[in-house]
Amino acid sequence: MTTTTIPTLPAGRTIKLGLSRIRYEVKTYFRQGDAVFFSFLFPLVMLTIFSVAFSEQSFGSEAAPLSAAAFYLPGMLAAGLLLSGLQNLSIDIAGEKGDGTLKRFAGTPLPVLSYFIGKIGQVFATGILQAAMLLFVAGVVFQVELPSEPAKWATFAWVFLLGVSTSAILGIALSGLPRTGKSATAVIIPIALVLQFISGVYLGFSLLPEWLQNVASVFPLKWMAQGMRAVFLPEDFASLEQGGTWDLPGVLVVTAIWLVVGLAATRMTFRWIRKDS
What we know:
The protein is 68% helix and 0% strand. It has one domain. The radius of gyration is 20 Å and the shape is elongated. The chain has helices at 11-30, 33-53, 68-98, 101-105, 112-141, 150-174, 184-198, 210-216, 220-232, 248-269. The protein has 10 helices and no strands. The longest helix has 31 residues, at 68-98. It starts with 10 loop residues before the first helix and ends in an 8-residue tail after the last helix.
């Protein structure tokens, strides 16, 4: 009896294949109308709705008024990270499992690492485009005054990179939750919506009951949104957070913990079928 083995590709070739798959994944993503709307454009749509609906309302003090667009911008940026990573990847990979795409990949020399590079690279690419679009519309259309301090943008950079990485890894881990590819949307979207509503994205976090704030604090979206608020909201808004501060070390620690949890869950649950992978 003979056994067919699939050769292991050199590291450079594996990375090159992964980079080529990023281009493929991005093109495929923008060809899917539902994914583009519910993952890529949804935060912009919600920012526009809230900015217009509450245009006459001030969210700051009389001395320092804050527009609705400025108030909701941090939450929409954080929601974009969740939608681009967790929601998009979990539904996408579950669909590929259901329609046999992963099974077909198992019969090719494509390494698992190249596959993951393509998926995570797509999340980074679309996440950066989405954030740039939100910032552009907020600054140009709704006249939101964006930060001028380099330290604020440095904070934005690490919150964004850590947040999008964590969301992408959790998306891969959650792709095993739906029983079929067809049920993925019905399973994943409610999870993403609930997290957004309890994490200070659509509602002021301080308006939520204390027990619900404590529940939200277990999950990473609350901390990603808090990190974004630390960048884009005035310092006096920090008093509305739990503990009365932006707590950026907490943002770093909790989000990083979820990144590790996602990596462990992915390692235990993701199946590539091919034994040598």
